[in-house]
Amino acid sequence: MESNKSFTVLSARKTYRKTQTEEKQFVCTECKKNFTELSALKKHQMSHCGKKPFICTECNKSFTWLSWLKRHQMIHRGETPFACTECNKSFTHPWVLKNHQMIHARDKPFTCAECNKCFSELSMLKQHQNHAGKKPFTCTESNKRFRQLSGLKSHQMIHTGEKPFTCPECNKSFSRLSHLKRHQMMHAGEKPFTCAECNKSFSQLSNLKSHQMIHAGEKPFTCAECNKTFRKRSGLKSHEMIHTGKKPFTCAECSESFSQLSTLKRHQVIHKGEKPFTCSECNKSFTRVSSLISHQEIHTGEKPFTCSECNKSFTSFSKLKRHQMIHTVEKPFTCSECNKSFTHRSRLKSHQMNHGGEKPFTCTECNKSFTLLSGLKNHTMIHTGEKPFTCSECIKSFTDLLGLKRHQRIHTGEKPFICTECNKSFTYRSVLKTHQRIHTGEKPFSCTECNKSFSQLSPLKYHQMMHAGEKPFTCAVCNKRFGQLSGLKSHEMIHTGEKPFTCSECNKSFTQVSTLKRHQMIHTGEKPFACSECNKGFFQLSRLKRHQMIHTGEKPFICT
């Protein structure tokens, strides 16, 4: 039937007829993609052969297509001709601007006739209508509904644990044939979809499309809580669970819950004791490929990601981003009580409970109350002795995931917290804060007996034992007691004869490093303790004090 569509030019009508009737007869032999014109096929095939005839005269970067080169050249010229009328932000390409404008307008022209839900793209509406349509097949376990019986059967394998499709290479099993085929590409090394910008290849077209957003800088999905943006809707949904606290995936071994299925699967490897990823340099094995990659950087020493603020380099882009928060971190959510700022609204709400004194979650064992349910859950593990989070490197266990992650930095050597004064790095934020007191001279912990101040709470507690006469550490050989564990350990060397600290000048050995340092002053001639009366110098404070008695006339020692 002839269309009633009108055309002003005969050639346009011919083109229209051609697109309406002509089949896509030109097929790519690499990835089976179809094209209506031979020229389009040839242009596409350049992505597989790696041919890049268009070269940038500024930086010699090559491109498959002229249009990609022209867009790239805008970076050198600083040209961003497509400007947003709402916020004046500019972009190099019109489709990036269009996606950006959805953030302001929330433009959703496509409406579902059934439920009036609106969408920004037609594809999203169609996807929604598939979900919202008639679903006669219901899962008896989770009440999830499906349009087809095959969909229900595939879903039920999640509950039964059935995985009938097995990889002949590594015996890994899958619940669906499509998942097996996707997995087998990994063994075959097959990656038919190639990025025209950087030649990176992918086994799936969807992964290529997600990757291309990195080059375009496109992040169309925005979190309503904290305005963080994401390239994928799935990334946004996973992120939103941080604010809602939703964790739908539970480990059958230890009942620990997770916001993502992939995180649960990574966790389950801990219980199995599996370490399938092995370093080719030293044969050390790891539970995760990411841990292996981090470890391998120890051998290569490669740190390709550099901070533009302080020139510090990092092994991964994620570590660089975390570091850059030190220089630029935004905290838009401010507490009206104490003006403390937070990066997320949810963290501000948790903080505000401290001012209100609200602690709705109470431990049934000891009646201790908490502002958050997570705090109560972590606390109850003290009573049960439960430590479900186990380090895959050394089998040490922890009550919470945060404790495990902090501990794992010991194995990876990661020190993400950097002192802005001296650039020294630390594994923990608390250690950085303690270190910074060296620069500020701050000593917030004071002894109530003698007003002596300390930069840390632990030295104050040991000091207070001196006033109390408390000596909890006892020598097993001679029963001598000490106020500090370090004092006991130094004393025990008298019995063992151990003297691990040796002078490089005369080879004399000592039980303590402080004694060695004092001894070395004999060789250097250093006398840091000077008498205020006669300027005579001493290398020990005790000797200065003894000398000062000459000036004061003090004679504390009486002959009996």
Shape: elongated
Q: Identify the CATH homologous superfamily of the domain at 164-218.
A: Classic Zinc Finger
User: What is the strand content?
Assistant: 5-15%
- Helix content range: 40-55%
The structural class is alpha+beta
Q: What do we call the CATH topology of the domain at 164-218? A: Double Stranded RNA Binding Domain
**Low-pLDDT sequence parts:** 1-22
What does the radius of gyration come to?
34 Å
CATH class of the domain at 164-218: Alpha Beta
Mean pLDDT: 75
Number of strands: 38
CATH A-level architecture of the domain at 164-218: 2-Layer Sandwich
- Ends: how far apart? 130 Å
Q: Which assembly state applies to the chains in this document?
A: single chain
DSSP helical segment count:
20
- With strands numbered from the N-terminus, the spatial order across the biggest sheet is 1-2
* Major sheet characteristics: 2 strands, antiparallel
Summary of the model, kept short:
This is Gastrula zinc finger protein XlCGF26.1-like. By secondary structure, this protein is of the alpha+beta class. It contains 20 helices and 38 strands.
Q: How would you describe this protein?
A:
This protein is α+β, with helices and mostly antiparallel strands and 560 residues long. Among the domains are: 10-40, no CATH class; 164-218, 2-Layer Sandwich (Double Stranded RNA Binding Domain). The protein contains 20 helices and 38 strands. The termini are far apart. Residues 1-22 have low confidence and may be disordered. Belongs to the krueppel C2H2-type zinc-finger protein family. This is Gastrula zinc finger protein XlCGF26.1-like. InterPro entries: C2H2-ZF_domain, Znf_C2H2_sf, Znf_C2H2_type.
